[in-house]
Every structure is written in C-alpha cells, then in structure tokens.
Amino acid sequence: MTTRKPQKTAPRIARVAKGKKPQYFSDPAIDKLLWMTVTLMEELSVTRDRLDTVERLLAKKRVLKANEVDLWRPDPKSALQRDTRRKAFVDRMMRSVHAELDEVMRSTHRGAEDDPVAAVES
Predict the structure, then answer these.
(1) What is the 3-state secondary structure (H, E, C) of 69-111?
(2) Residue 2: how many CB atoms within 10 A of its CB?
(3) What is the pLDDT of residues 17-36, one digit of tens each?
(4) pLDDT of residue 49
(5) Using an 8 Å Cβ cutoff, are 122 and 108 in contact?
(6) Most distant CA pair in the chain: distance in Å?
(7) Contact criterion met (CB below 8 Å) for 113 and 119
(8) Which residues 6+ apart lie within 8 Å of 107 measured at CB?
(9) Can you give the pTM of this predicted structure?
(10) CB-based contacts of 63: which residues, under 8 Å, 6+ apart?
(11) Do 44 and 92 form a contact (C-beta atoms < 8 A)?
C-alpha cells in the first residue's frame, strides 16, 4: 500500500517591491511612463492570449457566430464586474503616479499640524 504525500503549495508572495526602484532615465517622469507602459503591455499580452484561446475554442465547437460578440451587451451584474476589474487595472497603471502624489502631499503638509491656518490654506 502506497501513501500519497500531500502536495505542497508554494507560499503566496506579495507583488510589492521593497526598496528604491532603479532609475533608468534622467527624468523620473520618463521612468514612470516606462513602468506604466510595461504594465499595460503585460496586461494586453495576457488578454490577447486569453481572447485567442476563447475564439479558437468557440470556432472549433461552433458555438457562436463572429458578430454575436460584437452585438452582446452586459447585464447589470456583468457591467459591475467589468467596472470593478477596470478600476483595479487603472489603479495598477497609476500606482507610481499615486505614490508620488502621496509623497508630495505628505511633504507639503509637514509641520502643518503646528499651524492650523497653514493646513487650511494648502
């Protein structure tokens, strides 16, 4: 009698890099655009692969006509799911911009707690 060993699953690692990001260009804004573009390229590549798979499977099984995809409209639940997914995507794309904005806002408001008028004016 053989006993099966339980399969070990790899621990899930957070996808947040620690430490300072390398800077490749003299202007940090260009680096941010580079990271946003690379992220967009990754997302688009995965999406195209998945779409290609679905289209090939549907064509092979003769499930849909080509124009049915173009004519389909989402129901409210599907529309909400798409909106949620789209928001998460935009948040990922704009992560570096938001981080910089947060840093600027923190540095702008330092010391403002000592001066209530300055906190309200800014």
Answers:
(1) HHHCCCCHHHHHHHHHHHHHHHHHHCHHHHHHHHHHHHHHHCC
(2) 4
(3) 677 778 888 888 888 889 88
(4) 95
(5) yes
(6) 79
(7) yes
(8) none
(9) 0.47
(10) 57
(11) no
Q: What tokens appear for 5 in the block?
A: 């060993």
87-116 in b/e form (b: 16+ CB < 10 A) is: eeeeeeeeebeeeeeeeeeeeeeeeeeeee
Compute the distance between CA of residue 58 and CA of residue 65 in angstroms, rounded to an integer. 9
Tell me what the pLDDT averaged over the chain comes to. 81
Element (H, E) at 31: helix 28-61
How many beta carbons lie within 10 A of that of residue 79, not counting itself? 11
Helix (H) or strand (E) holding 49: helix 28-61
Which helix (DSSP H) or strand (DSSP E) does residue 66 occupy?
A: helix 66-71
Q: Give me the sign of the Cα torsion angle 86, 20, 37, 13.
A: negative
Q: Which residues contact 119 (CB under 8 A, 6 or more apart)?
A: 109, 112, 113
Contact 83, 89 (CB under 8 A): no
Domain boundaries, the chain: 28-110
